[in-house]
What does this fold into?
Amino acid sequence: MHKETYNVIGVMSGTSLDGIDLAYIHFSIIDAKWNFEILEAETVSYDDNWLSKLKIAVGFSETELVQLNQDYTVLLANVIKTFIEKHHIQNLDAVCSHGHTILHQPQNGFTLQIGNLPEISRLINQSVVCDFRVQDVELGGQGAPLVPIGDRILFFEYDYCLNLGGFSNVSFEQNGNRIAFDISPVNTVLNFYANKLGLDYDDRGAISKSGKLNVDLLNDLNSLDYYKKSFPKSLGFEFVKEIVLPLIEKYNIPTEDKMHTFTEHIAFQTALALPTKNGRLLATGGGTYNDFLMERMQSCLPQLEIVIPDKKTIEFKEALIFALLGVLKLRNEVNVLSSVTGAKHDHSSGVILRIS
It folds into this structure.
């Protein structure tokens, strides 16, 4: 007989490198319906040394990646321990940790999330559920996106769930199946150009808004092969580094114009990705704070109601859902949908590391 309540911590580090998201969640199941409450949540920023490492790690050798994984596991354990102590958290069922994606090459049967080494359980003295993507890739799937089952279970009242982080991804129901895929890069590109201007990010999209649209660049971006592929499909930072940035850099135009044009590209591709252009869309992730991006998106989707939820849900929805994935794994229930990832079948993914 399964429990009806769970206390867990969800841990997530995204490709936009904003930091490590931690959310202490209480789940309850009442009349077969899942309910959640985010009790405590915070983002722990990376210091300059870690930020530099994670930005260039995609090019690391195998030996360097092994060391990085060990070092990051220790870092992550310290961050989690501090969070537990700070908020006086007790009686946890598990810590459910995504880790940080360094390499994502499902076409080569490979994906690497650092911070999931077995010693993390010992270091924090808690049961840990982690490494959610590897099994799916082994089953022929993309290993991403994994959030859609959480969208189906926790946010079923919305026609679309859109996350705007380092990349954008969307999920929705179609013919009884949950469909989901990555749409385009978002903050991986916008933050790159904000950094060139000496800023961490483009506050509310003010810099992007000040630029001008370059139609030729927009057309080139919209012509990239990825957008012609049918789902399931997913993106990694390799796509930005090897394809998107080199394309943008061919244009000798002001940085503001590059950012303005790329914002228009995000909005255009988002509208293109939705099979119907009406209903209700739940938007979460750091990109929702970019007023210019949201304005352009609404302009491209005038019949759609775009709902931006409370701050905790905006910023910690992915940590929340990885917490749910961990609980589903503890229950040995499906937490990855083959309709989303392209795997051979639905499955219960992840590794459970028990306190020894």
In short: The longest strand covers residues 33-44.
